[in-house]
């Protein structure tokens, strides 16, 4: 009898694992707001149908949120008199997708007032947009709460001109490994960058001459700051082609190209370039882990009624 019980427990733990991270769990809103994930998905789908670049926008927003105070939606707070929020930081000047989060929040407030956090909306919307771009579909544990602080002075993110070691320092400070960093950087397969982020690379001998010429033409007009795709091959598809591109010296950003040149990360780049399934698995592991950084749960923080402002006491 005791042996049978052990077998049953083993079956449920390993065949149907319970996915949970501390106070987060998959299906957190199954009772309090059963349609929460469906509502977010519908909003993302409408936006994706109009503009497939929302995947890149949401991935960047999610990263920029989690790597400052943790995944607490502090990046969504508007700049107001007396509050220089994270949006005021230079690194966040080109972050976009806020209107999509607003739309999802309005619908959720009508369906389930003061129930679903803005932090969870960012995580869920990012997950859904990755799937819509052809990337992996993965479960997200929810239950995050929204932060009560947002300061531009706290934004310290690896930039486009960072070396691998400089970027890794920020990742390790947030409990993430080199493997996870390289996998997350694969999100650049659907990304874009403004010319101002890489103009210095246009004379770099580590850039493919053909790409240099192309980028030079795009970035030549004065008074403008156009964007270019970071993956020049399959620009809107979530796949492993980014890694193949940087192995060919077609990395647009300095940090991207350094991933393929630095001895510490070059092997991982080659592995992901050859194994799309392996990249997808590693990406899921990395983005799920990222989504647990510095979370607020239980009675911490709040559930904002408007993602752009803290609740009135």
From TrEMBL:
Record localization: Secreted
Job of this protein: Removal of H(2)O(2), oxidation of toxic reductants, biosynthesis and degradation of lignin, suberization, auxin catabolism, response to environmental stresses such as wounding, pathogen attack and oxidative stress. These functions might be dependent on each isozyme/isoform in each plant tissue.
A Pfam family reported for this protein in Swiss-Prot or TrEMBL: peroxidase
Family affiliation: Belongs to the peroxidase family. Classical plant (class III) peroxidase subfamily.
This protein's GO CC annotations: extracellular region
Enzyme class per UniProt: oxidoreductase
Coiled-coil segments: none
Cystine pairs: 33-112, 66-71, 118-307, 195-219
Name the UniProt record assigns to this protein: Peroxidase
């Amino acid at each position: 009898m005791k042996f049978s019980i052990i077998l049953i427990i083993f079956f449920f733990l390993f065949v149907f694992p319970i996915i949970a991270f501390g106070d987060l769990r998959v299906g957190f809103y199954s009772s309090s707001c059963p349609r929460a994930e469906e509502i977010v998905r519908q909003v993302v789908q409408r936006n994706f149908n109009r503009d497939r670049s929302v995947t890149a926008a949401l991935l960047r927003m999610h990263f920029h949120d989690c790597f400052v105070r943790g995944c607490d939606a502090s990046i969504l707070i508007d700049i107001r008199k007396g509050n220089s929020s994270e949006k005021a930081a230079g690194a966040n000047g080109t972050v976009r997708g806020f209107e999509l989060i607003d739309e999802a929040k309005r619908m959720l407030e009508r369906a389930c007032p003061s129930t679903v956090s803005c932090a969870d909306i960012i995580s869920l919307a990012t997950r859904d947009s990755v799937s819509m771009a052809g990337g992996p579909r993965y479960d997200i544990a929810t239950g995050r709460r929204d932060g009560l602080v947002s300061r531009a002075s706290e934004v310290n993110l690896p930039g486009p001109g960072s070396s691998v070691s400089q970027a890794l320092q920020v990742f390790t400070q947030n409990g993430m490994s080199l493997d996870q960093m390289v996998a997350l950087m694969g999100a650049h397969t659907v990304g874009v960058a403004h010319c101002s982020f890489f103009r210095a690379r246009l004379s770099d001998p580590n850039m493919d001459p053909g790409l240099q010429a192309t980028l030079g033409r795009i970035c030549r007009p004065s008074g403008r700051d156009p964007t270019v795709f970071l993956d020049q091959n399959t620009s809107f598809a979530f796949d492993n082609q980014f890694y193949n591109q940087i192995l060919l010296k077609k990395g647009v950003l300095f940090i991207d190209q350094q991933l393929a040149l630095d001895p510490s990360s070059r092997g991982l780049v080659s592995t992901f370039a050859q194994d799309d399934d392996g990249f997808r698995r590693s990406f899921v592991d990395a983005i799920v882990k990222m989504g647990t950084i510095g979370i607020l749960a239980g009675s911490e923080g709040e559930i904002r009624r408007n993602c752009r402002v803290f609740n009135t006491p």
